[in-house]
Design goal:
Blueprint: E1 4-11, H1 24-30, E2 31-34, H2 38-42, H3 48-59, E3 62-70, H4 79-96, E4 101-106, H5 118-130, E5 135-140, H6 148-153, E6 156-159, H7 168-183, E7 189-195, H8 212-226, E8 230-236, E9 250-256, H9 260-275, E10 284-285, H10 287-297, E11 304-308, H11 323-330, E12 336-342, H12 344-353, E13 358-363, E14 375-385, E15 388-390, E16 400-402, E17 406-411, E18 414-419, H13 429-432, E19 443-446, H14 453-456, E20 462-466
Parallel strand pairs: 1-3, 1-4, 4-5, 5-6, 10-20, 11-19, 11-20, 12-18, 12-19
Antiparallel strand pairs: 2-3, 7-9, 8-9, 13-14, 14-17, 15-16, 17-18
Helix pairs in contact: 3-7, 4-5, 8-9
Length: 495
């Protein structure tokens, strides 16, 4: 009999320090596909949903399509938003009738107004509806804050092993194969979990240079190669910008059955996360030091790439902090560009003024008065577009992006790509949507903290990470107002 497998995606990385609520409109602005609309949007892309669809075709399963919802990281989901999407998934499960498995594309760091554990609550409700006989598998971001509820109610949890995340398809394909073995009766997967008293660790999951994360992944690979009962092994660096009780790095093993050796594996991995807690493979620069370094190495065609890490929309940053931009303008940089700068009002003003117009704008600093004030500057509108493009890759290759009304505004020698929807810049087409070829500039500033490396490191003279406390993504966690994490905890309480 044909196996029936429900596919759903519900993703969000919630920065609880952000004052921007996450609503249904937040999902519609980035990605909200329902039912059959899922197939043409994801088919052929480097995404988890694409792998789920291909897995169903490979194994002759009948896919039952629910929804795929993804929003740019921001503050807590409103109760209405969360319950609407969860209600749709649960309703689709009920309407589907008999199911053999459920494939979920989750993030693992979702917080709503009424639940600290968005994914755990979803999985608990799904399990209550389908009972123990349906296989429930979920893919996770490696920045998941994996909770006890997630481990309890899912049969299979598999996390990315790359940061920047370029293995989304591969990880989902791995999860599909474990589901296949389970449905065939060959294995009985169970999730094992361990954590230590830490908010952040494993070098925040960085895999672009040797360090704790790559060492931990090597240990996971060794465990898998030596023990056939280990179906999957994941290291989650956690998402530190969430003031919740179950925050921080975790080790996860999917083992075949109930055996204490699997728990011993995750405890050993968690011990190593703790032992390497102080190790960092990146250095953070102030704006002044970053610009001095950039000037020393930059050239047209081999740009210095400046990461505005503390204002990364990919972790809940507003994308409109002005500290680095102000520094670039004051330094009188030439052949310089920044993308993507979130300011719908400024983008609208540029479109109203028209191409080639010289106008004065107040840029940024509009959302949260705790951070940098607006920049008032006179410049020229050099490009206008609808902000639509397809990601070149490698991360999320083939996925469409709609930045909304987009304008490029040139202030002296600095061009700013201003967009009307918040996006992290992890693809060169974020600049091209603003009429800028990034390989032809000497300085590139990106609103991103790590994902940009996949696209920009190959053309960079040097990558320089800027963090001067100008946003809710600051890496100095001791400056953030944590009140709900268990204490003592590293790094808030030292050793």
């Amino acid at each position: 009999m044909t196996k029936r497998v429900l596919i759903a995606g519900f993703k969000h990385e919630t920065n609880t320090f952000s004052i921007q609520p996450t609503t249904i409109q937040s999902y519609e602005a980035r990605g909200f596909k329902v039912g059959e609309a899922i197939v043409p949007y994801f088919k052929g892309t480097n995404t988890e949903i694409a792998a789920f669809l291909d897995g169903c075709a490979k194994h002759g399963w009948q896919p039952v399509l629910s929804l795929a919802a993804d929003a740019t990281p921001s503050g807590k989901l409103t109760k209405e938003c969360y319950e609407t999407i969860v209600g749709t998934i649960l309703g689709d499960i009920e309407k589907a009738g008999k199911l053999d498995a459920i494939l979920l594309n989750l993030h693992g760091a979702m917080v709503a107004e009424h639940t600290d554990d968005g994914e755990g609550t979803l999985l608990e409700r799904i399990r209550a509806k389908v009972g123990p006989g349906v296989v429930v598998a979920a893919t996770l971001d490696l920045h998941a804050n994996v909770t006890q509820a997630m481990a309890k109610y899912a049969d299979i949890l598999v996390s990315y092993r790359t940061y920047p995340h370029i293995d989304m398809y591969d990880i989902a394909a791995e999860a599909v194969e474990i589901v296949k073995r389970t449905l065939d009766g060959a294995v009985k997967p169970k999730v094992y979990l361990a954590r230590r008293a830490m908010i952040d660790g494993a070098d925040h999951g960085r895999t672009t240079s040797p360090g704790p994360m790559t060492e931990l992944l090597d240990r996971c690979a060794k465990i898998r190669s030596e023990d056939a009962g280990v179906l999957s092994a994941s290291i989650n660096a956690g998402f530190a910008w969430a003031d919740i009780p179950e925050v921080g790095p975790t080790a996860v093993i999917v083992g075949d059955g109930n055996d204490p050796r699997f728990q011993a594996y995750v405890e050993g991995l968690a011990d190593y996360i703790w032992e390497t807690r102080d190790y960092r493979t990146v250095k953070y620069f102030t704006v002044a030091d970053a610009l001095a370094r950039a000037k020393a190495v930059a050239s047209v065609g081999k740009p210095a790439v400046l990461s505005d890490a503390a204002d990364n929309p990919g972790g809940g940053g507003y994308g409109e902090s002005t500290g680095l931009l102000r520094g670039m303008i004051d330094a009188k940089l030439e052949n310089a560009a920044m993308a993507a700068f979130y300011d719908p009002e400024a983008a609208a003003a540029c479109h109203k003024a028209g191409l080639g117009a010289t106008i004065t704008l107040k840029l940024g600093g509009k959302i949260d008065e705790r951070f940098s004030p607006p920049i008032e500057a006179t410049g020229t509108v050099t490009h206008l577009s609808d902000g639509n493009f397809v990601i070149e890759g490698p991360m999320l290759r083939g996925v469409g992006v709609a930045m909304g009304s987009t304008a490029t505004f040139k202030i002296g020698g600095v061009e700013v790509v201003i967009n009307s929807r918040r996006f992290q810049n992890y693809d060169r087409n974020f600049f091209r949507a603003g009429g800028i070829e990034p390989s032809e500039r000497a300085f590139l500033a990106v609103k991103s903290s790590q994902h940009f490396r996949a696209a920009y490191a190959p053309i960079a003279s040097e990558v320089i990470i800027v963090d001067e406390g100008g946003g809710v993504m600051s890496n100095d966690l001791t400056k953030l107002p944590f009140t709900r994490v268990p204490r003592p905890i590293f790094p808030l309480d030292g050793e």
